[in-house]
Amino acid sequence: MESMRKIKTSWDLYVEEELPKLESRNMFLPIRPMNISIAGQEEGDQTHLVEDEYKTYQGIQPWNRLAAQVMLPQIFFQRLMDGFELTSKIEREEHEIISSNQEKQFKKLALFAGNDFLGLSRHPTIATAMAKAAMENGTGPRGSPLVCGHTYYHRALESALANLKKKEACLVFTSGFGANMAVMVAIGSIVPVICEGEGRRPTKEEKVAIFSDALNHASIVDGLKLAEQQGGVQLTNCKNKRKVVVTDSLFSMDGDIAPMGELAQLRKKHGFLWVLDDAHGTFVWGKNGGGLAEEFNSEYDVDLCVGTLSKAASSLGGFVACSKIWKQWIQSRGRSFIFSTVAPIPLAAASHASVVVAKKESWRRREIRKRMKEFHALTGIPARTGFYCVAVGPPVVPPNTARIRVTLTAVQTSEDIKRLAALISKHVKFQAPSNIDNSNYTSARL
Description:
The protein is α/β, with parallel strands linked by helices. The chain contains 15 helices and twelve strands. It has a domain of 263 residues: 3-Layer(aba) Sandwich (Aspartate Aminotransferase, domain 2), CATH 3.40.640. Strands 3-10-9-8-5-4 form a six-stranded mixed sheet, with helices on both faces. The protein has a two-stranded antiparallel ribbon with strand order 1-2. Strands 6-7 form a two-stranded antiparallel sheet.
């Protein structure tokens, strides 16, 4: 396929050369593709997920609005209004009340605090795909992907994600956190595995130097700790032959977008492996929903693209889109993949439907852009990325940097934005709206 440009980098060649060493030491772990018996079908019949059979819609439907609403128990809502949420005593008392069904009154609110960016959580096509898979295959997982859990549904999901990201292959995880952990550990294990096979310790120059943005997601930070990688050296001064740069594409707490163009140029200059966590950009940015790499025409510059299915896809899980060689290395060395149970088939089926629907219903991406422009016009805040409407404090963010984050979605209306802006204006002095073009993607903090 022309979209999957097979231009091997020095990193690809390096991993390709080292992979046989895993096999020679019985450390390569292959994924075993399997099919399962389907209720109502004869043995030998194959499952087929036909993308053209997924029904899509144009424009907001009545059921879409349910994805932009939330119901809170009245007692909890009142405590929020009174400022008594953050005490353990209140939480214990409330749990007892709700568990005993004493609370029957609920307050309906417009939701600006979720990650359902495209509003797909109430999409009937996705629900139907999940229900059909459950009726035919049951609900429970079968085991780990390396033992007996990698079914046709999981392979179809991986293929759809690889095509979306313009990569040769894809590996699906049960969480985005696990995907980042596996990537970091797998990268960090390359040199130790080689040197152990040769009966020696790696030299300082042989070690992989990993450069990570200070604001990267906690899963990247924790993965680097497991990989025993430490910072302290600038990219231009690094003497290590093998270098890696890992960054979020969209930093969810500050709302900033990574300098994609500049990173692509640095990659050409320094030859590093580029790992991009596109959790908040996948399905939302780019013509086809390919994320910020597609938006900035740098899909072929990114080597490993990590994403999540629990945000814009309104499902659960994570993935790594990469080359076939890298997929084999990660599945053999990424501990969070090796030792995790596979996602249940109905969830894999729902995720596959979400990928297809998100790509085809491009109007959802346009609606998000409209909400951003309206929010900016009313508040002066250049909302080019996500916000969140619940107070966020430590340990999620560093001490003394607590903020309010507002999440805009495709199924909110102009009236929702006006009401939100009017409410916030009672507590925040808005700046005058400025004229910003589509090339400026940086947002301001409230």
